[in-house]
Design brief:
Number of strands: 21
GO molecular function: oxidoreductase activity, acting on the aldehyde or oxo group of donors, NAD or NADP as acceptor
Distance between the termini: 78 Å
CATH architecture of the largest domain: 3-Layer(aba) Sandwich
Number of domains: 2
Protein name: Aldehyde dehydrogenase
Family: Belongs to the aldehyde dehydrogenase family.
CATH class of the largest domain: Alpha Beta
CATH topology of the largest domain: Aldehyde Dehydrogenase, Chain A, domain 1
Organism: Nocardia flavorosea
Oligomer: single chain
CATH superfamily of the largest domain: Aldehyde Dehydrogenase, Chain A, domain 1
Radius of gyration: 23 Å
Largest sheet: 7 strands, mixed
Number of helices: 16
Shape: globular
Strand order of the largest sheet: 15-16-17-14-13-18-19
InterPro entries: Ald_DH/histidinol_DH, Ald_DH_C, Ald_DH_CS_GLU, Ald_DH_N, Aldehyde_DH_dom
Strand content: 15-25%
């Protein structure tokens, strides 16, 4: 890490009022030592340590959950309209501090600054949206026999645990926390140990914006012991987890044993079908965007492009031209593609490219590291992939795009659905009827037509099959963060 960059990181942390020793945030205060060990936070581009934190022990987690439970008892009594007003203040505070938050997110996760800025704007939008929804969470009246009146109420769950990933730290946090608070719950957040900076800043920002202390407590650490202590706690009434399938299975087992609710957003191997009549330039833009966003480190990314063989050469040429021109560099320099999150992830991505070559696929562009080194991979396009190859079956989580070919639409749909995942999918065609037919048959929680970018906060998001359980975003999220009570009255 250069002296100039080290100075810039120090300035960002100073402006954020974050020391290089982070701790849990409970009841509106940093707790001091976590009494569970020490973990470094490094710069993804270089591996240089930029901060660190004391791991929250089981005792610290217990204090965080119990404090949040007391805050919940008070918060649920606050009128929905007042909850909404307070959440709107938080949204305004995120927008006020957007520049600082974006730079903090960039040095923490490695993502290019322009992408970090978009994430922060999205985080503010979650609070704006659910601020407006807070006083519209209601039950129904139900027709009954004469002399009987029945209705339902939607009531909060209590304390909800949110375990968030490293690839989109603040948007993943706000996506779940905002509807939870709007519905009257309290939360305890455990961000990824790789990217805790914006989450720590945000926990303090909530209190400074006027929300009751304890309503959003934060603990720091890895899955064991911190995450385990959080999910096992007797006062946790729901768990929201975003991460790997293996991690989701472990969380799901805990939820099943404890008989509590769970939201799981897990992996994806999202296909996009590109028909012969498609706008190939638009499809190539979407294919390139998949490796640009978070350097391909996104479960949502479309990383299996299924192309009609009659237009395959033209499409590959267009896509290769777009990918070969992408810049690679440090997030704060605002390149097209940033670094991978860790040395382990770099090794994993390289192994996928090597296995694709071994399996007989051809690397059209990229496939190597920049001369400067670091945790970077040049944007890579692989052609000649078949759906039985490792690169087509597993998440790469890097700037690697795969092209498969098909002869008929039936074949394309079969290939698209031949996966353990079902998070998202896409289709490019100029024929509206074809778009509807394909969208209906694709086994995915979200289908994009003639586009492949993130949808607004109003649109439910979640997966089929091993991509998860439940839905985030939109009004659908509130269904998961409330429970239904039926009231039946004799009025004869």
């Amino acid at each position: 890490m250069t002296t100039t960059f080290r100075r810039e990181v120090s300035e960002i942390l100073g402006q954020a009022r974050l020391t290089d020793v982070l701790t849990a945030y409970i009841g509106g205060e940093f707790t001091g030592l976590g009494r569970g060990g020490w973990m470094d936070v490094d710069d993804p581009a270089t591996g240089a340590v930029i901060a660190g934190f004391e791991t929250s022990s089981a005792e610290v987690v217990d204090a965080a959950v119990r404090d949040a439970h007391e805050a919940y008892r008070r918060w649920r009594a606050v009128s929905p309209a007042e909850r909404g007003r307070l959440l709107a203040v938080v949204a305004a505070a995120i927008r006020r501090d957007a520049d600082l938050l974006a730079r903090l997110e960039s040095i923490d996760s490695g993502k290019p600054l322009i992408q970090a800025q978009a994430d922060i704007a999205g985080s503010a939008r979650y609070f704006e949206y659910y601020a407006g929804l807070a006083d519209k969470i209601h039950g129904e009246t139900l027709p009954q026999a004469a002399g009987t009146f029945a209705f339902t109420r939607r009531e909060p769950l209590g304390v909800v645990a949110h375990i968030t990933p490293w690839n989109a730290p603040l948007t993943q946090l706000t996506r779940g926390v905002a509807p939870c608070l709007a519905a009257g719950n309290a939360v305890v957040v455990k961000p990824s140990e790789l990217t805790p900076l914006t989450s720590v800043y945000f926990a303090r920002l909530l209190v400074e914006s006027g929300l009751p202390a304890g309503l959003c407590n934060l603990v720091l650490g890895a899955a064991d012991p911190t995450g385990k202590a959080l999910t096992e706690h007797e006062l946790i009434r729901h768990i929201t987890f975003t991460g790997s399938v293996a991690g989701g299975r472990a969380v799901g087992e805990v939820a099943a044993r404890r008989i509590i609710g769970v939201n799981l957003e897990l992996g994806g191997k999202s296909p996009t079908i590109i028909c012969a009549d498609a706008d190939l330039a638009a499809a190539a833009r979407a294919g390139a965007q998949a490796v640009v966003r978070n350097s391909g480190q996104s479960c949502f990314a479309t990383t299996r492009l299924l192309v009609d063989r009659t237009v395959l050469p033209e499409f590959v040429e267009l896509l290769a031209a777009r990918m070969a021109g992408l810049s690679v560099g440090h997030g704060l320099d605002d390149p097209d593609v940033g670094p991978l999150i860790s040395d382990r992830q770099l090794e994993r991505v390289v192994s996928f490219i090597d296995s694709a070559r071994t399996d007989g696929a051809r690397v059209v562009t990229g496939g190597d590291q920049p001369a400067a080194g670091g945790r970077f991979i040049n944007p890579t396009l692989v052609q000649g992939v078949t759906n039985d190859m490792r690169i087509a079956r597993e998440e790469v989580f890097g700037p690697v795009q795969s092209v498969l070919e098909f002869g008929t639409l039936e074949e394309a749909i079969a290939i698209a659905n031949d996966t353990e995942y079902g998070l998202s999918a896409g289709v490019f065609t100029r024929d509206v009827a074809t778009a509807h037919r394909v969208a209906e048959r694709l086994e995915a929680g979200q289908v994009q037509v003639n586009r492949y970018i993130g949808a607004g906060v109003e649109v439910p998001f979640g997966g089929y099959k091993n991509s998860g359980l439940g839905r985030e975003k939109g009004t659908e999220a509130v269904q998961h963060y409330t429970q239904v009570k039926s009231v039946i009255m004799d009025i004869s």
